[in-house]
Amino acid sequence: MTDATPPAPDLAGRVALVTGASRGIGLGVARHLLERGASVTITARKRPELEEAAASLGAPDRVLAVPGNAGDAAARAAAVDATVERFGALDVLVNNTGINPHYGPLVQADLGAVSKTFEVNVVAALGFVQEAHRAWMGAHGGAIVNMASVGGLRSSGVIGAYGASKAALIRLTEELAWELGPTIRVNAVAPAVVRTRFAEALYAHGEDEVAGRYPMRRLGTPEDVAALVGFLVSDAASWITGETVRVDGGLLATGST
């Protein structure tokens, strides 16, 4: 299980922006970075949920909530600019926002839903990188983590459009790492099924059955993913860029689908 020991405050003085952070993995990442000393901006579409999430984090002097749709260029710019204005920097960007509006065979997929999946999961992530680069990282450096998925590393069946978008995000991560080094590091993490509302459809029919396919015999938690993100944006990972790191309880090691 996850280690209950509080993380060291090794990110003190740094500023992070976490997208899709009103709940689930994004909120877990924001909490972890906050506990390690960073100031954190969280953003998501729904203002009430976002404000509730911000309140749950405590430390109002180090938490900023900026509502906005990741697919909206103006909203992306607003979140980045508000972060720099409030905290005076933007050292860490975590592109966590993701959607999966299509469930089923790709040959029957509504192409509008597929386009929207790529627009939010890939294009919006690049948009946030561009804004962060413009506002701070281009001149000062930083670390970026994109939230991919094991679905981007193998065929993903009924969530094929989502998996294809995450494969594109992994490729985007590699391109950006090459382009933005040496001052900006860009990595991705690839979770398997994590116990969140977003992934609930993948285990609601029987969590024990799904977890039984994993060598670790449990599903992931937001804290599992957050700890990896925290490592990748820290100085301990200063020679790691362009990588996609699995956090999957050993699922892909089994070769199962």
Give the structure's gist in a few sentences.
This protein is α/β, with parallel strands linked by helices and 257 residues long.
Question: What are the main properties of this structure?
Answer:
41% helix, oxidoreductase activity, globular, seven-stranded parallel β-sheet, Rossmann fold, 7 strands, NAD(P)-bd_dom_sf, alpha/beta, NAD(P)-dependent dehydrogenase (Short-subunit alcohol dehydrogenase family), 7 helices, 257 residues, SDR_fam
Radius of gyration: 17 Å
Beta-strand residue percentage: 5-15%
* Mean pLDDT over all positions: 91
Write down the domain tally: 1
CATH architectural arrangement: 3-Layer(aba) Sandwich
Textual characterization of the structure:
The longest helix has 30 residues, at 111-140. β2, α2 and β3 (63-65) form a beta-alpha-beta unit. 41% of the residues lie in helices and 14% in strands. The chain has one domain (15-250): NAD(P)-binding Rossmann-like Domain (Rossmann fold). It has a seven-stranded parallel β-sheet, with helices on both faces. It has 257 residues and is α/β, with parallel strands linked by helices. It has helices spanning 24-35, 47-57, 73-87, 111-140, 160-180, 207-211, 222-232; strands at 15-19, 39-43, 63-65, 92-95, 142-147, 184-191, 244-247. It is built from seven helices and seven strands.
Question: How would the blueprint of this fold be written?
Answer:
Elements: E1 15-19, H1 24-35, E2 39-43, H2 47-57, E3 63-65, H3 73-87, E4 92-95, H4 111-140, E5 142-147, H5 160-180, E6 184-191, H6 207-211, H7 222-232, E7 244-247
Parallel strand pairs: 1-2, 1-4, 2-3, 4-5, 5-6, 6-7
Helix pairs in contact: 1-7, 3-4, 4-5
